[in-house]
Design goal:
The chain is an all-alpha fold. The radius of gyration is 17 Å and the shape is elongated. The chain has one domain. It has four helices and no strands. Helix 1 runs antiparallel to helix 2 and helix 3 packs antiparallel against helix 4. It is about 75% helix and about 0% strand. Keywords: Membrane, Transmembrane, Transmembrane helix. InterPro entries: DUF4233. This is DUF4233 domain-containing protein.
Length: about 120
């Protein structure tokens, strides 16, 4: 058995920290995809004029988030998720409510990055 500074010490106490972090990223992106798709109708009813371009952008971002959720094992997936958050923020130019969703999910994604850094070091 190694001491506290031994090479076998797990910083987080998780059996498989890589897998836990992948699950966190995938779950975050899957939730984002679901919320984006479910938000279309309420935005149309409450928020007013949601253009076809805005609906297309929401659907495309939701599909991209769902695909990225499945690809979280790839080394580039976290960076691609960050780009996705930026694109969602940019879609706020199409409708103000998309900017609100973009800010919310950018904050959630930033927290997921923080947790990833704490767990993996």
């Amino acid at each position: 058995m190694s001491g506290p500074e031994g090479p076998q010490q797990r910083r987080s106490g998780l059996r498989d920290p890589q897998r836990a972090v992948r699950g966190l990223g995938a779950g975050t992106l899957a939730l984002e995809a679901l919320v984006l798709l479910l938000a279309i109708q309420p935005i149309r009813l409450v928020g007013g004029d949601l253009s076809a371009a805005a609906i297309g952008a929401v659907v495309a971002l939701a599909v991209a988030a769902a695909m990225l959720a499945g690809l979280m094992g790839r080394p580039w997936a976290w960076n691609a998720g960050t780009v996705l958050q930026g694109l969602l923020l940019l879609s706020g130019l199409l409708h103000w409510s998309l900017l609100v969703l973009g800010v919310m999910f950018a904050l959630v994604w930033a927290y997921a990055w923080h947790v990833r850094r704490v767990i993996l070091g």
